[in-house]
Design a protein that fits this description.
binds S-adenosylmethionine, alpha/beta, seven-stranded mixed beta sheet, Rossmann fold, Class I SAM-dependent methyltransferase, Methyltranfer_dom
Length: 246
């Protein structure tokens, strides 16, 4: 409860920092729509209370980058900030309403663009190579849509397409076959570090990792680890050309 209340206060502060009183008003409107009118197309980045904190953590990776892709960019908070550092920055999301909002908010930013695209196992290899990929709280969406093995193969394609991966897995549940239980966010750093090391060993280098507390789309408390991963040593198995699921 304490985290929840703190998160709400943080959220108001974050909304105010982002866009002043009008942004706070929009956040309150979204909250009411979500809670009482069952609307689900609310503003994701209006709800996350840790956008600025996460950006401060990520910025050193992006500030020298020439090119950045933000997979599952929602309303483009990070895509815009990456472009503002001078990088070419492309946000991708499959939700029309989110891409629309992202485009409206990036009106005057050079080198910033958004693509509406549903990334799946049939098209993920079309991702171009860039310096940095932001892949934050998307892995479990892929797992839900395609199964763990396919989602993991897609994750490998993503690692292959960048030198630095900013990876945020869901801190409240495990990504693991045949295991559907909830994960205590307090254990998620250890869980995901172990998972990455077991799957990829020396092929990747986890340079930094930190927990970020937030709430889960107007609901419960949550904390996610964010990993900064050097993926230059990772090589994609080119013989695997699609879904590894049987
Ligand atoms: C939980 S939000 C995370 C937003 C942002 N990355 C962040 O961490 O603040 C996940 C986003 O990924 C998008 N998404 C999920 N699956 C996708 C897919 N297969 N292709 C493109 N976008 C996807 C969703 O529409 C949503 O906006």
């Amino acid at each position: 409860m304490a985290i929840f209340m703190r998160a709400k206060l943080q959220r108001v502060k974050e909304l105010y920092t982002t866009g002043g009183a009008s942004e706070v008003g929009r956040g309150i409107k979204d909250f009411i729509y979500y809670r009482f009118f069952n609307r689900t197309d609310v503003d994701y980045h209006g709800e996350r209370v840790d956008n600025h904190e996460r950006w401060e953590y990520i910025e050193p990776e992006v500030s020298d980058a020439g090119s950045v892709i933000d997979i599952g960019c929602a309303e483009g908070f990070f895509t815009r900030r990456a472009a503002a550092t001078g990088a070419f920055s492309l946000g991708i999301d499959y939700k029309e309403s989110r891409v629309q909002r992202a485009r409206e908010r990036a009106d005057n930013i050079d080198g910033c663009g958004f693509v509406k695209w549903d990334i799946n196992s049939a098209n993920v290899t079309k991702l171009p190579e860039v310096d940095v990929i932001l892949f934050m709280t998307v892995h479990h969406h892929w797992e839900k849509a395609s199964g763990l093995d396919t989602a993991e193969w897609m994750f490998q394609v993503v690692m292959d397409r960048c030198d630095v991966l900013v990876y945020e897995p869901p801190g409240d549940r495990p990504l693991l076959k045949n295991e559907n239980g909830l994960l205590d966010p307090a254990d998620s750093m250890e869980y995901y570090t172990g998972r990455l090391e077991a799957l990829y060993g020396d092929a990747i280098d986890i340079r930094r990792a930190q927990m970020f507390e937030h709430t889960k789309e107007f609901k419960n408390e949550r904390g996610d680890p964010v990993f900064i991963i050097d993926t230059t040593g990772f090589e994609l198995d080119e013989s695997a050309t699609g879904s590894p699921d049987p």
